[in-house]
Each structure stands twice: as C-alpha cells, then as structure tokens.
Amino acid sequence: MTREEMLHRLKKTLTPQRYAHTLGVEETAVRMARALGVDEEKASVAALLHDCAKCCSLQEMHAYIQNDSIAQTVDMSMRASGALMHGPAGAARARKEYGVEDPEVLHAIRYHTTGCAEMSKLDKIIYLADMVEPGRRSFPGLAQLRALCETDLDAAMRMALQSSAEHVKENRQALHPDTQKALQALTRQEGPNG
Fold first, then answer.
1. What is the rounded average pLDDT of the residues 80-100?
2. Within-domain flag for 188
3. Per-residue pLDDT reduced to its tens digit, 100-141
4. CA of 151: how far to CAs of 6, 114, 158, 171, 183, in Å?
C-alpha cells in the first residue's frame, strides 16, 4: 500500500485531531531516522500507522488481536485499557488492513505506548516522535526532551519513560510492566557512572 493510500484510509478512520497528530509524528520520525541512519521508509510507515487503532472502541481493538500472534503478548491490564491496547491492536490492524509484514515496523507500532526491554532504534524513534511531535500539547520538560531527541536517543528515552512513569503515578495508576522493563534496560545501559 502506498503512502497516499494509507493517508486516504487514515483520514477516513481517525478524527481530524488524531490525523494531524499522525502527520506530526511521521514528520518527526522521518527527521529523526534521517539523522540517526535508520530506514526512513520504515519510520514513515510505523509513524503513519502507530495510532491506526486509536479511534476504535476497546471491543474493536480486541477483535483486531483475536487470532493474531500478537494476542500472546497482551496482558490483562492492557486488555482493560484502550490507551494501552491501541498499540497491539494497531500492529494487528496494520498487518491485516494495511498489508504491513515488516516485523520491525509492527514491533514499533506494538510498543509505541509502553516501550519494552529490547527496543530498536526504530522503536525508540516512534515512541519519542509520538511524544514530541510539533502539535503535542506542552508538558514539563518537553523542550528539553525535543533537544535530547536530536543528540542522545537513549537519554531521550530515559527522560520520556520517566516522564510517563511520573504521569501514571500522578494519576494513581500502575506503571505497565513493559514500561518498567524499558526503564530498567535503559538504566542498565547507562551504567553506574551514567
């Protein structure tokens, strides 16, 4: 499926605000990919489709993962939350309706909300682009996070994950285990002198 075909379909299935966000994520992801030597086409596709299931009901999200191998990676806390569930549902929808077969692109879509222990550069780019795209509503540290995205991908991920963890804690919710694992992995990489 061409980019134009994807855009046409997305425009019909997303709200105008979500569609604008998606274009901002794509622009940011492609720019980051170019700077970091990551495949720009993969970054574009993953960014365009990262929220392809976001406007679906939780029931529709469950239907997308049913009979899909991705269902094995979805725990009960994720199944109860549309905010978390749209990642795995989006990956399943990208495969089923948009013909995406690239495992790296599907992985980036799947984990763009929670992160995970073993994140590729593409995974990190999509996670970060989602947080820092130009239309994103401001939050404490956004300018610093945007600057870090240009210079240090792992430091940007640590900051983004810590910001997410604080947001979850402020809302008296439990941090998803995948996010905990992502933070732990990045902290280990940083080492004792980081």
1. 94
2. no
3. 999 999 999 999 999 999 999 999 999 999 999 999 988 888
4. 31, 22, 13, 31, 19
| C-alpha span between 3 and 99 (Å, rounded) | 12
- Distance from C-alpha of 44 to C-alpha of 73, rounded to nearest angstrom: 24
Angle at which helix 16-36 crosses helix 142-151, to 10 degrees, equals 40
Among 17-31, 68-82, 88-102, 105-119, which is the least confidently predicted range? 68-82
User: Is residue 54 in some structural domain?
Assistant: yes
Give me 127's structure tokens.
């996670």
Residue 14 inside a domain? The answer is: yes
Residue with structure tokens 């996670």? 127
Provide the pLDDT for residue 71: 84
The enclosing domain of 78 has a CATH number of: 1.10.3210.10
| Lowest-pLDDT range of 25-39, 80-94, 164-178 | 164-178
Q: Which domain holds residue 86?
A: 3-140
* Euclidean distance between CA atoms 178 and 189, whole angstroms: 17
SS3 155: helix
Give the residue from 147, 34, 47, 167 showing the smallest Cα distance to 104.
Answer: 47
Burial of 164 (0-12, 13-18, 19+ CB in 10 A): buried
d(CA 74, CA 12): 27
Q: Give me the pLDDT at residue 193, please.
A: 45
